[in-house]
Amino acid sequence: MKETEREGRRWFLQARDDARFVAWVEKEGSFFDKGCFIAQQSGEKALKACLYARGERRVFGHSLFEMATELLRTDEIFRSITDEARRLDRFYIPTRYPNGLPGGTPFEVYTQKDLQEARQDLDRVLKACARFLETQGIHFE
Length: 141
Prior knowledge:
The protein has helices spanning about 5-30, 30-55, 65-70, 80-90, 105-110, 110-135. By secondary structure, the chain is mainly α. It has a single domain (about 5-135), classed as Nucleotidyltransferases  domain 2 (Four Helix Bundle (Hemerythrin (Met), subunit A), Up-down Bundle).
């Protein structure tokens, strides 16, 4: 297995595991702020998996939208998730820090609806990334 395939696979497997945690949080019905943040993190790891699989040696940054836009140079499939990427990006800072919000604290502000929408966006990102990775010869059971 080539190094790019191996690294893409490792990052995507971690993204999938993080997504399982998001689903668990949603089922639990609490910790919505943390679930939204992990949804963003999972999407970030999935897109980084695609960049690594594409041949990138170093991948920096945290913006899903920027990564999806960069990946559009390689495959049009990423056009289908740019809105989802934008929405997930909103969970990177304010879900973790009170000063990321104009008032209140993250655990008070984020709701089950926020988490449900984040999970739905994440599901779309993961599906698009999995399809891309398959085209790169990286297969998952």
